[in-house]
Write a structure and sequence with these properties.
This protein is mainly α. It is built from 4 helices and no strands. The protein has one domain.
Length: 79
């Protein structure tokens, strides 16, 4: 069973397996890991004064998409 705490190396090894159940579970775990990393780094960038436009450019998405996805969480974290 894969958990979000699996190492990246373990996840990469699991992703190479032929079993669809294992492969799909790995995709889900990687997706959760990427979301956590994105939240962490967007928060760091904003705390260091990056604009929403700069963050969005670094992520390769629009400013509106980035703001919609992260602004509320960051605002709630400051309270």
């Amino acid at each position: 069973m894969l958990t979000p705490m699996n190492s990246v190396r373990e996840l990469a090894e699991e992703a190479c397996r032929q079993d669809p159940a294992t492969g799909l579970a790995t995709v889900a775990a990687l997706r959760r890991l990427l979301e956590e990393l994105e939240e962490l780094h967007v928060g760091n960038a904003r705390a260091q004064g990056w604009s929403w436009e700069a963050v969005a450019e670094a992520l390769g998405v629009t400013k509106q998409t980035t703001h919609r996805k992260h602004a509320r969480r960051l605002a709630e974290g400051r309270r």
